[in-house]
Amino acid sequence: MQRLLDGIMKFRRGDFETHRELFQKLKSQQKPQTLFITCSDSRIDPNMITGSLPGELFIIRNIGNIAPPYRESTEYLATTSAVEYAVLYLNVSDIIVCGHSNCGGCGAVLAEKDPLDDTLPHIKKWLELMEPVKDRVMKRIPETDLAARQWMMEQANVVEQLTHLMTYPYIYERVMQGKLKLSGWHYIIETGEIFIHDKETGEFLLGNA
């Protein structure tokens, strides 16, 4: 905790002062261009890997960077409501779904023996949204190649979430009108590389400046 408290002081004396004018502009409104959906994994820092400043990304984080299929409900839908806010209120022009290497959620879904017992019921239920992806991966990649299964699961899961997003009526409409673009990324933690989904080939290609 002390490290975090020290970080507060370092921020106030350093980054805040450097960007004081920016924070003054942000005090009453935000106008992000991009909705960035990624995993809650502590190793992922959206602003760091994109080189973005406060106010540039509207970020949604959850286990497995999942965007549930659209549905109307009286339940409390955190991810769905955040997507709705970003698109309909903030009018973002881009949505990025960013998966990552060594994803614990993908690994848990692929595991031969279920690692999620009854003490983690909500995580287990949440990850059911990945089951269709798991079925496709296990049919294509032999069980002897676990690394390939994990890699493909992480990338195929990103594509699945892009498909889910297109079930949102307002997202579908804006994409068709050319007002909104969807993109899928696969971030490799140990190398810093980002592979970007190519809609024409269906492959993830290394992103280059």
TrEMBL record:
Location within or outside the cell: Bacterial microcompartment
SMART domains for the chain: Pro_CA
Family of the protein in this entry: Belongs to the beta-class carbonic anhydrase family.
Pfam families with a match to the protein in the record: Pro_CA
Top-level enzyme category: lyase
Protein name: Carbonic anhydrase
Cofactor: how bound: Binds 1 zinc ion per subunit.
A Gene Ontology biological process term: carbon utilization
Species whose genome carries this gene: Propionispira arboris
Gene Ontology terms: cellular component: carboxysome
Function recorded in the entry: Reversible hydration of carbon dioxide.
